[in-house]
Amino acid sequence: TAKRDGRNRHRYFDPAMREAILHKRELIADLRDAIETELVVYYQPIFDCQLQRITKAEALVRWLHPEKGLISPAEFIPLAEECGLIIAIGQRVFDQVCQDLPALKSAYDDGFQVSINVSPIQFAHEETQLTQWVHLLNAHNLSCNDIIVEITEGVMLDPNCETIKKLMVFRDHGMHVALDDFGTGYSSLAYIYQYDIDYFKIDQCFISTLKVGSDTLALCEAMVLMAHKLGIQVVAEGVETTEQAELISAIGCDFIQGYLISKPQPLSVLVSDRKGVVFS
Ligand code: C2E
Ligand code: CA
Ligand code: CA
Ligand code: CA
């Protein structure tokens, strides 16, 4: 896979490498000033297969750089994690979600939830943002139930148990927990049964290769079965075609997220463009 190639590639200090380092430094400097003014939060709808309507959305941060244009979070989030800016970014995203949730609730449903990506670095940070977050939610007449915290398997594998304890404090307050990119990390089955998780998000690499009779379909089926046995619901990520949607819902997947339903969009689009999406 591309990932494996990347990991094994030798590093040469050639001009391209130098260029990349300079580019990185410049981005970090820009990012520091951009957090309050140039970061925006987009929302990608999550479709409930049973209810046949949108009941949640994932908050995805975007950087609208005045000169470089739109910069993908895949580019700047790893940088932000490296230099610590992820703490301020995480707070910025949470603030925005609190501001936006009431509009989403009135456009969709009072039970509408927003799913927020929380980096392992944020959990490792001394001052947990939890108390701040609970205050913010209260100030907006929202509750912890309105929020799903998305973590990756990396959080579960952290040898520092403090991280997982913090996560469970979030859980105790009523926030829901989703395990993101499920199936791509190192096995953490041992952790899954120990901690109360609400959702698995099956990574899009499984969804993109779904075909009738394919191995990935068998894997997805096994993941859904395991999840349901554990009382966990399943979200399929990166669903782009009706064929994928039909296959994944036929094996009992609970939610669908992907370009088929909608790309991540600004709040205004989600609120005004509230169409009942039906794929089958
Ligand atoms: P992720 O959490 O796995 O988010 C899903 C990514 O898949 C998003 O990329 C989304 O735009 C993309 N996607 C959704 N549906 C489809 C589809 O049908 N096809 C394809 N090809 N792609 C689809 P995005 O928005 O570029 O975000 C990339 C990553 O950046 C996220 O991956 C997440 O790990 C991270 N990220 C984004 N926002 C935040 C944030 O506020 N905080 C933190 N810590 N990380 C964030
Ligand atoms: Ca996510
Ligand atoms: Ca994901
Ligand atoms: Ca559960």
TrEMBL record:
Name under which the protein is recorded: GGDEF domain-containing protein
Organism in which the protein naturally occurs: Nitrincola tibetensis
Taxonomy, superkingdom: Bacteria
Span of domain EAL: 24-278
